[in-house]
Amino acid sequence: MDTKKLDLNLLVTFEVLMEEKNVSKAAARLHLSQPAVSTQLSRLRDLFNDQLLIPARRGMIPTAKALELTLPLRLALDQVRDTLTTHQNFEPQQADLTVMLACTDYLQSVIGLSIIETLRRQAPNVKVGLRSLEPARLEAQLANGEVDLALMTPEAAPPALRTRHLYDEVYVLIGRKGHPQLVDDMSLEDYVRLEHIVVSLDGGKFLTPHDQALKALGYSRNVVLSVATFLIVPELVTQSNFVALVPKRMTLGRTDLTVVSSPVTSTGFSVGMVWHERTHGHSAHRWVREMISHIML
């Protein structure tokens, strides 16, 4: 390869073309004309001696060489970007920043708004994108920039990622206000006879780690409903005699619920931040992480 032909802008164009797989869309993102992007693609083909992207009925199809180049070139560009931004002072009031956060619906509901409000109070031009946590894809998403920061149980994060503990959560038992059987210090016999809702994030499962703990004690609770999200559970119990174990922070400020401790010591969970080396030294992302840590104190 003749490195004299190398232009960093060509690599940026390649990165965007691989994401869009469409010259017109790439041109719009790069704020260039379509002919200019087509010219840059031609230079890229000459540079790598490969077609890279082949026209198809809808958009373009990357060649094997293009797929092979994507990750190392993205990492190289990220390193250049980080090097340039790390040595700049981050000024929140002037920053034009977009942060993509991945977390469960529970975390979106209990801490999402406070994070957004605090970040925007300090950095008025910041934009925050909240998206659902996808554990199986998280490492790749953090590496390629789809996600900048994840809020989750740190112990469940892939070992190559960086983590920081934020707080510990516990489960409490909830039911409608005035539920006649929902009282503190209830017996295990009374507890398991209640009609329980369980949350199965995968959907449709009726056994949880809590049920395993009950089984070890020789009990099995009466599970009548399995749902895929914590968010609808409070509304379900307020309109029925169902009860459910939910994270305690979900109940704060609710006056329409009866909240008691579970007669079984349920394992709680920790919540923390998870991020990739890609953003570790980035001054803006460091600031975001520090702000979130401060919010959770």
TrEMBL record:
Keywords: DNA-binding, Transcription, Transcription regulation. GO terms for molecular function: DNA binding; DNA-binding transcription factor activity. Residues 6-63 form the HTH lysR-type domain. Transmembrane segments: none annotated. InterPro entries: LysR-type_TF, LysR_HTH_N, LysR_subst-bd, WH-like_DNA-bd_sf, WH_DNA-bd_sf. Pfam families: HTH_1 (PF00126), LysR_substrate (PF03466). Coiled coil: none annotated. Belongs to the LysR transcriptional regulatory family. PANTHER family: HTH-TYPE TRANSCRIPTIONAL REGULATOR LEUO-RELATED, TRANSCRIPTIONAL REGULATORY PROTEIN. This is HTH-type transcriptional regulator SyrM 1. It comes from Vibrio spartinae. The lineage of its organism: Bacteria, Pseudomonadati, Pseudomonadota, Gammaproteobacteria, Vibrionales.
